[in-house]
Amino acid sequence: MLINIRTSEANKPIVQELTRRLNLGAENVVSRIAFSFSLSKNIKLDLEKDLLDSKGKEYKDDILFGKYRDYYIALICQHYGLYKTDKDIGKYIKMHIDHGLTIMNKIFEENKNYSGLDFLLENIETGIEKLEENEVSNDPIIYDEHTRKNRIVNKNYFAESIKLLVGKSFENEDIYFKLNDTSIHNNAHIAVAGNSGTGKTFFANSILKQVVKESKGQVNFIFLDFKGITEEDEKKNSEFFNATSCELIKAPYKPFPVNPLSFIDNINEKNKIMGINKFVDIITSYSNIGKNQQQTLKDATKDVFAGMKGGQYPSFKQIYEKVLEYEGDKASTLREILESLSELDLFETTVDLKNNFLNSNYYLSLSGDLPKSVRFTSVFLIINYIYNTFMNMDNAPIEGDYQGMRYVLLIDEAHTIFKEKKSQDLLEKILREIRSKGVSVILLSQGIEEFNQPSFDFSSMCETAFLFDIKDKTNLKMMQKFMGIGEKEATKLKTSMEKIQKYQLVSNLKEFKVGELFKA
Prior knowledge:
two-stranded antiparallel sheet, 9-stranded mixed β-sheet, single chain, Arc Repressor Mutant, Rossmann fold, 12% strand, 15 strands, DNA sulfur modification protein DndE, alpha/beta, 20 helices, 45% helix
């Protein structure tokens, strides 16, 4: 049985355009990818409703499949429960090629700076994660359309120029950073590194203040302070808080205005299980609980969710009480962390169904007096909540040269929070995916060593890097990697870092001279 197909007429130019964008060779390669991508969505197409015309690109059997013909047919047979000689196999293959081309084209149309490499890395990573049965995916929980409309309000975006003054040259020339100008920058993510007392935090506050002002208050932010703000720093930052109408929340004295459990989909059963598994994984990752306690937490959380009515969400206290029922009076690490999360009132118990907190500015200070496991868990629950919420929103469009912007997620002490491989993988996923939603991630660190991991490279994830004085400023290769610059600018970077003083920095800004010293 020969299988010769033609794509739809509408998809003929799409094949050509995607072949150009992906740059992987002949047009049959793109159609193979489109076929696989369509099947990966686990959608069953209908021969009567979804079979398009055959006026487009023609593929002969051997050209389309190459030496992997049996594998492609097996995939279709498995997906639809067909035998390998079924007369409609060719039609099913054609439907999925057309469907895959359509949805791939939509992705590239909505993300003008999205490369073929981005597409392949994301989807290969997704496939690998599905093969690792014991691993909890870092993927967001995507609601079905009905739930999304009821649960997610698309935050307004600002699609005009956001031009930030980041410093002055030694000739007193103003240096500007055009945050969302896509003709200059591929993304709006920023890495800032510098020793304590070098001006790093003041610089970050200045960026946030200008973002709020330039966007007329439409772009909001959260500043996650892992180490906790001191009374002295609180006084120093009073002007920043006032200028940005930023609410300071000092945990555990005031709860953060979200229930982080509400990222779990309590309507769709499959999504609910995925969400509960992810919640358990976050608790597990930063509390070192064993396998038995993981299962206890999972069972307790499922039981509590099963008892909620009318779309309500549980509190940490309810899960803690259920765990006590399971474990009795024996002491455990699980009990200890859940007790802290419930009794310290770190989060609201009510649910902000419209995500109104995203329309305000917050500085969340996690006191250093809190147990480290509680601080880690709290930070990742919030990051996960924000990530899931934005990933359920429509993309923020590019208007003219300007990427629509909605939000800034600033994470202090990033070198501490993202030290482990698993958390680095999560951060990489967030940086790659959330940019299309109009979110800028700013990461502050004291050093650069932890960021320069073999599997995690800031030069590709955070396009713009600012480097203040650091301890290991003699390690030129490490600084080059952090800044994402080559040998051409290395000499200038080395000279600048040898002379650097307090409140001075270098950057890889395309609007200025790469590696040249300037004043913050």
